[in-house]
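Entry 14. Two folds queued back to back today. First construct below, sequence then structure tokens.
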Amino acid sequence: MAGPELEDRDWQRLDKWLWCARFMRQRSDCAALVAEGAIRINRQPTDKAHAKLRIGDVLTVAIREDVKVVRVLALSARRGPAAEARGLYEEIA
């Protein structure tokens, strides 16, 4: 069983990563976005905020009228400045 010591090294909770990557202002908003079914991981829909996210995963994120497809480049132990957050992913056209 993977404990919290492995989180942020091998995987990260989806809602926490979205918050660290600054997709939403509050982590609770990120969890709500996931619960609404607005996120897909590697084309698979998920409504679980605790879904495990790994480097290399591709996320489809629907926020309001916008849909972004991003590849996870890094995990983050903390929510940093916007420039640092942009380094966590790359947009796929």
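Second construct, same run, same settings:
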Amino acid sequence: MLLELSDEDARELRQALDAALRLLLEEIAHAEQHAYRDMLRERYERLDQVNRRVAMATESAEIYA
């Protein structure tokens, strides 16, 4: 899947992902069940990868602008 975002949309997406990642870290720290904690860690890793890809794309766009 290919998704095009404006610079403003990409910044908003990064802010939303940063907030979601912070909340996930808190939830992981307080999770008592091992399976639930593992599921949260997997979700964190997926969202973190998306966040990194958006960051790389926005940084590349700024270099060529």
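Quick look at the second one. The chain has a mean pLDDT of 92. Helices lie at 7-30, 34-64.
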